[in-house]
Recover the amino acids of this structure.
């Protein structure tokens, strides 16, 4: 699993489930910065980066690890770029609520 390169405060969700290894992780910080493979990237370069990752790992699922304080607009932009890159499985990571499941 490739680390995002930032530490984010994830929202909790009782439906959060662990995904299998091989995921492509994209981090979004509270101030809207985007990270992939421990490097900050411009939101406009998400598509070519994801295309490259999918070329290396065609079955890879994209997991967006967004800080709960990040703006929804940035998250939507990143999701759109991932889909345009050909990612078939794009999800947003959340912490599982304590005491559930």
């Amino acid at each position: 699993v490739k680390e995002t390169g930032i530490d984010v405060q994830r929202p909790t969700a009782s439906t959060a489930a662990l995904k299998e290894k091989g995921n492509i992780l994209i981090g979004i910080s509270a101030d809207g910065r985007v990270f992939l493979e421990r490097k900050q990237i411009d939101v406009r370069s998400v598509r070519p980066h994801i295309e490259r990752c999918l070329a290396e790992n065609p079955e890879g699922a994209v997991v967006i690890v967004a800080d709960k304080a990040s703006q929804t607009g940035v998250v939507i932009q990143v999701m759109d770029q991932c889909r345009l890159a050909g990612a078939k499985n794009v999800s947003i990571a959340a912490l599982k609520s304590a005491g559930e499941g």
Notes: The chain has two helices and seven strands. The two ends are 24 Å apart (CA to CA). Residues 14-19 have pLDDT under 50 and may be disordered. The helical segments are 46-56, 72-84.
